[in-house]
Structures are given as structure tokens and as C-alpha cells.
Amino acid sequence: MRFSRKHPNAGIRCPGHDYRSRCIYHIVLNKADRFPDFSEVVGIPDDHRWPPRTALSEVGKIIFEAISNIKSNFPHTSILRRCIMPDHVHFAIFIRESTDIHLGHIIKKLKRECSSRFEAKGHEPEIEFFIPGYHDTFLTGKDQLKKMLAYISDNPRRHLVRRSKPGWFQQFIISCPDGKSRYEAYGNWDLLSEFQRVPVKVSRKYSPSELIARKRLWHKTILNDGVLVSPFINPNEKRVRDWAIENGGSLIYLTYKPFPEKFKPQGKMFDLCAEGRLLIVCIPPDDKENEYIRDKGCPSYSHCQRMNSIAKEIAENEFRPL
After folding, report:
1. Any long-range contacts for 39-46 (C-beta under 8 Å, 24+ apart)?
2. Across-strand partners of 30?
3. Which end of the chain is less congested by CB atoms within 10 angstroms, N or C?
4. CA 105 to chain CA mean position, Å
5. How far apart (Å, rounded) are the C-alpha atoms in residues 152 and 131?
6. What whole-number distance in Å separates Cα of residue 311 and Cα of residue 305?
7. Tell me: the pLDDT tens digits for 261-276?
8. Contacts with 94 (C-beta within 8 Å, 6 or more apart), sequence order
9. Long-range CB contacts (< 8 A, 24+ apart) of 11-19?
């Protein structure tokens, strides 16, 4: 999905974006430590008779009512969807017109109202439901709203899947035997033990016959239950990735994006994790590269080359989780 980056601190927002303008946001608020759960997730994934859903606790119902009341406090807004999970809250809010009211003021008002409603029910006054700040992402491309709303609605199912397969939804460090190469990773570390791990890279230097031979190797790897290793940057590499996914293949996928707090893969990547078919390895950029990415919106040629080099290293050497 083409959203802005998530920012865990309310004081750090997307540079250059006007948070008073007309826009649709996906907001995430995280529960304060030692505060009661907002809900319980019940149901069975992929069972239409008992579909996953949230059963709200008393505090969850207070949050639900306070979110519903946002429109009364701010008539220029609409709540498009919400999902109150045990330890965090998702909702999509549409700021329908530009005003002098910052998004942060709306979130602050929501938090205060939750505390006020809790106190009105005879509980401790001025208690904080949420940790400071909030995460925001906003739509930057066409036809993305449906995906954003589906993601919010799918949270209960994803929660139950992660709970049933915890080993495939965790972050850790992988290292080669000499300890010189260490990378953050997420997903199924057993893929590092697969006998056949093959790097995927498409280069303009390849002759037509050499490229055909490599494609045959990649296809054979998937058909033989091997693993493809790559950042999958080139469009042709992406086509190999997509073919592998559609044909039951497993991937070790390298990314330049650091894992945010409480990282969870989205869309197809989540499903691949649930099936044990994905390991994500982070190759973080340095400060200079970060500046390039902010300016260009993509990694530099040198960083792409570095990721391809590390993909080859992971494919050809023994790495293990620490």
C-alpha cells in the first residue's frame, strides 16, 4: 500500500505534509502499560460460521463511543472504519475539508474524552488509556482506500493467525558462524536451513542465453521446494517473485526499511509469513543513504548493489538465528 511512513512520536510527522488539509488517515493508538485490555479477539480464521471479531471490554466500549463522537466535536470529519484490538486501536478518519485544526488536536481531544468517560463511570480520574503520541499513515495514491479499510478490518484474523503460529511472527538477529555478518530478520528462520537457496538478480550484463539459464534455475528451485533470496528490485525480479508466490514458493526477502515497533507484514507478505514461506532481512541504510531515500523515494544504486551482494552471501553461507 502506498502510505506515508509511520511515525511513533506525535511530535514527528511526515515532513512537508499539511495535517490541517483534506486527507484520509489511518490512525493507530497503543494501550498504556498496565491498563486493562480493550478487547478480546474471538472466532476462527477463515471460518464463515465463527469469523474473527473483537469482543469489547468496558474500556473498549468507551473508546468505541469516543471515536463515534469525533464527528460531533469536529463536523468536518468522518470515521470510515475502526477496530479496537486488545492492546491498540485502529481507525480511518476522513478530514473532508481544510481547516485550522491540526490532526494532532483531534487525537488529543479523543484521548481526553476517553479519560473523561472512564471517570464518569466511577473510575480513577485523569487516567491515560494510551501511550503518548500516535502513528499515522495517509493515502498518497489512487485506489488505496479499499486496501486501507480492508487492512483495518482484517486485524482480528491476523491476530489469531499470529497467536496460533508465534514462531513465524517474531523479530530476531541472524548471524553467520564467524559473527561478522549480523542482520535483523523477521519470519520463518527455518528457511535459512533449506538446502537450496538461490539468489535472484537480473542484470543488463547477462546475455540472453545466460538470462534464460538463470530463469530456468529459479523456476527449478521453486518446483524443488527451494528458496529464492533477493531484494527483488528490478521489475523482472519482481515477476520472478510473483511467480514464485503463486506457485507455492518460499522467499528470503531483503529490504532497506528498518522494522518499526510492533512490526507486522501486510497483505501477501502476512499470508506468506502465516504459511512459513517468508523470511524478511533488513539491510538498513546509513545516514547518507537515508537522505537519498527521503529525496528520491527509493534506495540508491549502491545500496541496491549492497543488498544484492548480501542476498548472495545469505544464499551461499550458513546463517542462524541468535
Report:
1. 39/84, 39/85, 39/86, 40/86, 41/85, 41/86, 41/156, 41/159, 41/160, 41/163, 43/156, 43/157, 43/160, 44/160, 45/157, 45/160, 45/161, 45/164, 46/157
2. 88
3. C
4. 26
5. 20
6. 10
7. 888 898 889 999 988 9
8. 23, 24, 77, 78, 79, 80
9. 11/133, 13/104, 13/136, 14/136, 14/138, 15/294, 17/138, 18/98, 19/102, 19/103, 19/104
Q: 228: helix, coil or strand?
A: strand
Distance of CA 77 to the CA centre of its chain: 26
DSSP 3-state of 254: strand
Angstrom distance (rounded) from CA 115 to CA 296: 42
Residue 45 has pLDDT above 90, yes or no: no
Q: Tell whether the model's pLDDT for residue 2 goes beyond 60.
A: no
List the grid coordinates of 290.
537515508
Provide the pairing of β-strand 227-230 with 250-255.
parallel
Q: Express each pLDDT in 78-99 by its tens digit.
A: 999 999 999 999 999 999 999 9
What lies within 8 Å, CB to CB, of 228 at 6+ separation is 198, 199, 200, 218, 221, 222, 240, 241, 244, 249, 250, 251, 252
C-alpha to C-alpha distance for 132 and 314, rounded to whole angstroms: 39
- Helix or strand or coil: residue 121? coil
Alpha carbon separation from 77 to 41, 72, 113, 173 (Å, rounded): 28, 9, 17, 43
* Positive or negative torsion for Cα 248, 249, 250, 253: negative
Calculate helix-pair angle for 155-164, 145-153, nearest 10 degrees: 50
